[in-house]
Structures are given as C-alpha cells and as structure tokens.
Amino acid sequence: MPITPEHVGRRYPAAPAYVVSRAKIAEFADALCDDNPAYRGDEPVAPPTFAAVIAAQAWDALFGDEELGLALNRTMHADQTFTFRRPLRPDDAVIAQLSIEKVRNRGNLDMVTVLVDLAVDGETVCEARSTLMHTGEDADA
Amino acid sequence: MPEATVGQELAELRVRVTRSTVVRYSGASTDFNEIHFSDRHARAIGLPSVVAHGMWTMGAGLKVVTDWVGDPGRVVSYFVRFTRPVAVPDTDEGTEVVYTGKVTKVDDGVATVAITATCGDDQVLGAAKAEVRID
Fold first, then answer.
1. What is the sign of the dihedral through the CA atoms of B13, B123, A51 and B106?
2. Which is the CATH superfamily of the domain at B13-17+53-133?
3. Would an 8 Å CB–CB cutoff place B59 in contact with chain A?
4. Partners of B78 in the β-ladder
C-alpha cells in the first residue's frame, strides 16, 4: 500500500532529544565555509540550516513506516522551507516531531510534504518543511 | 543594521566546493548518502559524478544574507527549491557556486531577499528567498 492523501495528518512519536553543542555548531559552520563570528566564541548560535540536521533524524520515522512503502534511495528532496522563532544555541535539547502535511500521487510519482516541528522546553523554535519526490518501485520508464 | 531598500543588491558570494568540502559536510550533517562520496553510486542514479548536498548548497548561500545583517538570529524564514545538482569534480579546484541576493520587499521591519545560486551555466537553486528582521 503506497502513501496516499489519506495519510495526511499522521504524526509520529518524537525522536529522542538532540542536544546542541558548541563543537557541533563550529563544525557545521566550517562545513558551510561560513566564518561568521556569531557561530563561534563563548555564546554561539547555530547556523540557521543546522535545524536540518535535527529534522533529518525525524525523517527516520517516515521511512520506517512500512505502510507507506517509502524508500530513501528513491527519494529526491524537491524543496525546503524553514521558519525560525529563535536560533538554536548550545545545550538546547531539541525535540523533533514529524507529521505528514500533504500527499499528491501522480502516476508513479508521490509528492510528499512533511513538517518537522523542532521544540525546546515545549516551545517551537523552528519549523522545517520539506517536499519529497518519491518514485514508486514499479517504475519501468 | 544596514538600510534596506527594494531593489538593493547584496554583495555577491563565491564559494569554492571540492570533494573535501562535500566530505566535511557529510560528517558535520551526518548525511552519509553514498552519492556524496562515490562516483559509482552517483552514476547509478543518473548523476554525472559525486554531487554536493542540496542542504549544503542551501546553507552556504544564506551567508549572502547573514553577512549583510550580521546576526544570523535575524533570519525568520528561508525557502529554496532544489533545481539542479552541484556536480563536484575530483580535482584540486573542484567547482564554484556563485550566490547573489536582492531585496524584493521591505515590510514591517522584515526584508525579503531573493537569492540566486549558479554553478557554471546551471541555476542550482530555484525561487530561493529569505526573510530577515532589519528593525
């Protein structure tokens, strides 16, 4: 049974808390070739797209849901949106929870929009919304 | 805070990306998809070679905006469409992504910046835009 619009609204249990660290923030900023001093020093903030690292861990629930039949190696990331309430900081224990927001089936192609809510101390700090393009297994074309 | 006016162009950003850059992002992001380090895996799904992570291309480009406003905590939203992959040759030079930013709207203390990302002849991000507090 493939993913269908009937799965919209499905919400998965949150992944274990991800605790942000200074070392990881600096490592991520280096990887983005970004020398902004805000990412370093005693009171750094995380680069905004660091949220994707935590959000991606919540994707495991989606790809682990056997009912949907989604395979990571047949999935393309079509677009990505973040909305930020505040930057992530060291020692934030981030709870990421994924829900299925939209599903469109077009032939062998499924367009799935997932929303990952990132919360610290019960308050949303970032929403990461991703559209995933998934190709079904029986693709002959 | 810098002044923001509609039509204003932000400083262009050129980012060199080599295989080392891609490997470093794999480690930092914990995205170990084989297409980011193995030509064999990349070609198996129709890519020309190892490609940069879409999230790297997105993340590196935001520097156009954060260098302008200084504090990355001012970014309130960021959207991109992934239109073309950034193929990264196994050479010392690698390749280069060129980013531009242009203010398209200023409203209630928030500036909207349209971002372009080009690698060679390809637009690698589509409809990219960030909203940033400038009050």
1. positive
2. Hotdog Thioesterase (3.10.129.10)
3. yes
4. A82, B130
Q: How far is B82 from chain A (nearest CA, A)?
A: 5
Interface ipTM: 0.96
Instruction: Please provide the distance, in angstroms rounded to a whole number, between the alpha carbons at the two ends of chain A.
Output: 21
Q: Is B114 exposed, middle or buried (0-12, 13-18, 19+ CB in 10 A)?
A: middle
List chain B domain ranges: 13-17+53-133
* Tens digits of residue pLDDT in B38-86: 999 999 989 999 999 999 999 999 999 999 999 999 999 999 999 999 9
Hey, what amino acid is at A50?
Answer: F
Domains, chain A: 5-21+49-140 (3.10.129.10)
Q: What is the pTM of this model?
A: 0.95
Single-letter residue type at B129 = K
Cβ separation A80–B27 shorter than 8 A: no
